């Protein structure tokens, strides 16, 4: 067969892009493939066996639609693009994630999808629960918390909290990181799959978890209700409240669901109960609701039947895998513990070694210091010996000086005694001079008083003489030529001569008194000079005594 013939027999293909929550893949599909063929190819590529939870979703005319498994891919109303994009997502949700999600890849895909729905606020979560969920997400991504490795700011590039929560509380990124890290540190020892499972177990209790909402109306004109489909049944909500349903239909209480154009009818198992009818805006919406109802109802019935052999095998493998992982985790934990203990022992040995090295260094330094101290002490001993010799020589000289000072002190004492005697004699002379001075002063005062009285008597005598002369010889002025008058004048001159002699005696007396006073003053001055000399000599002797005492 020719090469051209082989080429003609190769089927025509088209490209598709499969987008999972965390990756993208491209495949070449044959033109005749049905939706199930493409879906199985993707599941094989992912290693997924729990295929009944998932589907391939695409968007056409603004509406999200699931690829039908029993129809050809190209026969369905899909986007005209190359490659054609499909999102591989969970279409149906389990009632109890811990019992139904057997494979680790299934659990991981659910974890990523639910986490994205919470962050995109498609599922409402309280702020406290979002912080706890974020801590499990961090544990799944980073493993055990290590304060030496996970330094502040290591979550700066991770999206962990919904924007609604960030806007609701005026907290900085550092504060949120501190709150998340506080919970994160509590999860030490939890493996990645356990952390993801704990995340899903918390998320499955949220009111909006696994619910697909559609706007409906009880009549053709008004759309004032929401219809929600999940793993437990069908729920009717008011348009502004997606948390608490106004009415619920459990799958076990529904007898039949029918769809015709825009009308969908729910018939309860109780025939007496009222049949619920509602309308949607488009036929496609009704068909989508109908598909979700059928799929969720089938899973609901499947959970309540005996597991098929495939499911039993998968559960057994899951149990074995869990047991193996548990043992592996225990072994790893034991190895980690032993490694940590070995590291601690190593650190302790290194610390001890460092301590011993430090002690050896200190001992070496102490030895060097001791040697230096010994050398210094030897030098000091030599210096001390030289100082001792010098001190002995100084002591001998001091002894000689002491003896000399003793002799000097004896002489000083004798001189001091003589000086004291001279001072006593000088004091006695001074006392005598003071007494003599007082006596002479008193005598001078008496003499001055006598002189004053003599002069006063002289003045009175002269006055009396003049008065007598005027009374006895009034005509002397008229007869000045008579000789008798000359004789009286002569007598008067004699009296004047006597008075002048008396004045001369007084002057001489005053002169003698003044001379004696000057002599006295001269003697006093000389005596004071002598006293000063004596005081200077005494002061010099005292200084010599003090110096002699210091030398001794």
UniProtKB/TrEMBL annotation:
One of its GO terms (molecular function) is actin binding. It holds the Pfam family ERM_C. InterPro entries: Band_41_domain (IPR019749), ERM (IPR011174), ERM_C_dom (IPR011259), ERM_FERM_C (IPR041789), ERM_helical (IPR046810), Ez/rad/moesin-like (IPR000798), FERM/acyl-CoA-bd_prot_sf (IPR014352), FERM_2 (IPR035963). It is found in: Cell membrane; Cell projection; Cytoplasm; Nucleus. Residues 14-304 form the FERM domain. SUPFAM superfamilies: Moesin tail domain, PH domain-like, Second domain of FERM, Ubiquitin-like. GO terms for cellular component: cell projection; cytoplasm; nucleus; plasma membrane. PROSITE patterns: FERM_2, FERM_3. Residues 311-464, 517-544 form a coiled coil. Gene3D superfamilies: 1.20.5.450, 1.20.80.10, Phosphatidylinositol 3-kinase Catalytic Subunit, Chain A, domain 1, Pleckstrin-homology domain (PH domain)/Phosphotyrosine-binding domain (PTB). Its main location: membrane. A 1,2-diacyl-sn-glycero-3-phospho-(1D-myo-inositol) binds at residues 68-71, 287. Keywords: Cell membrane, Cell projection, Coiled coil, Cytoplasm, Membrane, Nucleus, Phosphoprotein, Ubl conjugation. It is a peripheral membrane protein. The keyword Cytoplasm applies. This is Merlin. It comes from Hylia prasina.
